[in-house]
Amino acid sequence: MTKIADLRSQTADQLSDELLKLKKEQFNLRFQAATGQMEKTHRVSEVRKDIARISTLLREKRAAS
After folding, report:
1. Which of 61, 50, 58 is closest to 2 using CA atoms?
2. 1-5: average pLDDT
3. Rounded to 5 degrees, what are φ and ψ at 44?
4. How far from the centroid of its chain's Cα atoms is residue 5's Cα?
5. What is the torsional sign of CA 37, 27, 11, 65?
6. I need a labelling partner for 14 at 20 to 30 A (CA). Which of 7, 21, 31, 57 fits?
């Protein structure tokens, strides 16, 4: 799980890169769940919440500029 204070210190480009990385991880986790290979089931909700945090911060940064 990513700390919000760490995310706030990053630039919009860095946040976009992190968002892309998390979306890829989310896809891989969904694929693992579908094939029955998932080991860390709690990671699905963590990734989803991190995506929401980063999306919110990106929206805030765009509105501020």
Report:
1. 50
2. 78
3. -60, -50
4. 15
5. negative
6. 31
Query: What pLDDT score does 15 carry?
Result: 95
R_g over Cα of the chain: 13
Q: What is the pTM of this model?
A: 0.89
What does the block give as tokens for 17?
Answer: 């890169």
- Reduce the DSSP state of residue 3 to 3 states and report it: coil
| Alpha helices (runs of H) in the chain, residue ranges in sequence order | 4-8, 12-35, 42-64
Q: Residue 11 is which amino acid?
A: T
Contact assessment for residue 57 and residue 15, using Cβ atoms and an 8 Å cutoff: yes
CA–CA separation, 62 and 65 (whole Å): 5
CA–CA dist 26, 48 (Å, integer): 7
